Every structure is written in structure tokens, then in C-alpha cells.
Amino acid sequence: LTCSTIYISTKLQVITKEYELFEFRRTEVPPLLLILDRCDDAITPLLNQWTYQAMVHELLGINNNRIDLSRVPGISKDLREVVLSAENDEFYANNMYLNFAEIGSNIKNLMEDFQKKKPKEQQKLESIADMKAFVENYPQFKKMSGTVSKHVTVVGELSRLVSERNLLEVSEVEQELACQNDHSSALQNVKRLLQNPKVTEFDAARLVMLYALHYERHSSNSLPGLMMDLRNKGVSDKYRKLVSAVVEYGGKRVRGSDLFSPKDAVAITKQFLKGLKGVENVYTQHQPFLHETLDHLIKGRLKENLYPYLGPSTLRDRPQDIIVFVIGGATYEEALTVYNLNRTTPGVRIVLGGTTVHNTKSFLEEVLASGLHSRSKESSQVTSRSASRR
Predict the structure, then answer these.
(1) What is the spatial distance between Cα 148 and Cα 112, in angstroms, rounded to a whole number?
(2) How far apart are CA 179 and CA 47, in angstroms?
(3) Is the pTM of the predicted complex or chain greater than 0.85?
(4) What is the pLDDT of residues 276-308, one digit of tens each?
(5) Given strand 32-37, what is the order of strands in its sheet?
(6) Protein transport among the record's keywords (predicted)?
(7) Which site in 152, 200, 242, 309 is 20 to 30 Å from 26, CA atoms measured?
């Protein structure tokens, strides 16, 4: 027997033993791959987030489930880097999609539960049975202690940053820019926040980017004035240049979608009723454009001229398995959208992927890299044309 024969034989044994893992379910409707471009929705990765997972990534950054807390004031050595994994952390799994206000309440419940168990675990060890029980329960107690310390530290740092950067007020205006169409009110609120010394240059530039994307072709567009306000605030040249770069990346000329105007009578009615009733949470009004795209796809209303279909036949049946891949990177807000659609749409399973998972910082790096690539390409084309004329 050759080594390759032995290897194949071993693999076949594994496949036979774990046949359930390799028994792919056959469906009447084949799986559908939906490929999207990040430039079709440059709004979503620019917004502050208020659900636990998305907020942690936005304000602290998640890299392979790890969060760097080394810059947190007074942080202990064992908490300088922590792991947030839904597979190994029950509290995180149960709370990753909840709003920040709910997280605070659940953290309090977690601590109270820990305090109740703590005295019990520290009882006197007077017999062999006591010692045995302690040894058996100690790993669980130690794990719970680590979970409490980790989440209290993370939530505490998020709270500190929200207060320090005035993010409640900033986020409210971001949501207005993303979800409403009142130019006068939006402009007034952006200008007011640009005068606030607590608003960082990063958040100030982000507000102007959102304004530039939304009111790019508005008859009363005041972007030059806002750019002057950024300069007067002392915002660096790097961030000021990114305003035009974001419009170049995801502006009206580039994107195939209309992010801001309702497209049919039903959408207009919904927006009108929403305006009358208000919203439960002004910080989470926004829904990514992905929600509308998937909703139309599931209902068979996705326009083929905007989303060309490649397959053996036309797309007639409602898809059951949808794989979404975002070129240019997805976001955790979009992951939440997919999670909610999976919960509320029986018979449909959606998986989200992308070239990366963005927060605002990484998205702006992507925009910058995209702009440099485009300029480099244009420059090489000009050079080659000049050479050909010679």
C-alpha cells in the first residue's frame, strides 16, 4: 500500500463514521450566491453602533475574537486582551445582538448571580466530601469569575468612551442623516456638533461624510461651509480629504441604489407612519440597505437589471439557501440584519460573508486604499497613452 492509498482509506473511514457532516441536504431550489459591492452602501459602515457585538467592534475593535484593552486606564495585566466568542462565552452569545441599555441591566444580573454563588463556593472545607465538591465546582466558579470581570471591564470602557466622545448626541444626528430627509434640520445639527469641543475630529469628519453622501446633489448643499468648519475645528488634512474620497467611493455616481428615497408607495407610507409614531430607539432607526435587498430577493422582486442573474435558468422559485458575499467588506450591523431575517423568515437560511468585517476606521482605510489604487491606475493609463503618442 502506498502512503496516498492509506491516506485516502483513512479519509473514507472518517467520512463514513461522520456521515452526517458530509450528507449535504438536497433541496428542490439550488442555493443562491448573492454578490454585493460595498460601494452600494457606504452609509452603514460609517455609523456608530449600539448593539453589543457591533459596538465593541466600532469602539474597541475585534480581531479574531480578541479585543485589545491595553489602553484602558488602570487595566489589570490579565485583562489587557480578552476573547469574546459566542461558542465559549454564554453571556456574550445571549447578549451580542442586544442594545447597549439592555447589556447594562444584564451585566448587573450577571454580577448579582455571581455574588450569590460566591459565598457558597468559599464555604469551609471540613471533610473529604467538601473538598471533592469544591474541586468539582471550582473550574465553573473560576470561569464565571472571568466572565464577570471581562464583561464588566468591556462595558465599563464602552460607557467611558460614549461619555468622553459625546456619542449619544453624535449618534442621534448620524441617524437623522441616514434615515430622515430634512436638510435644514440635519445641517443645523451637524454645524452645532462641529462646534462642540467634546466631539473628536474623527466623529466630526464622519458626520460631514454622512452629510456629503446624503445631500450630495441637494439644491442647498452646504458642504463647502462644513469643510471650512472642519478646518476651523482643527480637523487634520487626512480626515478632511476623506470626505471627498468617501463620496468618490460610494456617492450617487457610483452606487446602483438609492439609499435615501423611498422607492414605492408601501415604503413611502411606512416612512410617513414612522415619522408620525416616532421610534422606540432613536439610535437604532437605520437598517442597512442589505435588508431591503434580501427582502426583495426573498419576495421575488429583485430587479434583474440591477442584480443580473447567472444560472441554468431564470430565477423563478423562492430561494431557500442564500449566501451573501460583500466585496469590500460586511459589517456587524448587517450580520444583525441577517440574524433577524433568519429568525423571522421560515424556510429561508441566509449566510453572510465578505472580504472583511468593517468598523468605521477599517472602512475608511479601505476607501483610502481604493482611491490610491484608482489614481495609480489612471496615472498608469495616462503614462501609457503618452508613451504610445511618442
Answers:
(1) 10
(2) 11
(3) no
(4) 344 457 899 999 999 999 999 999 888 888 888
(5) 32-37, 321-327, 349-354
(6) yes
(7) 309
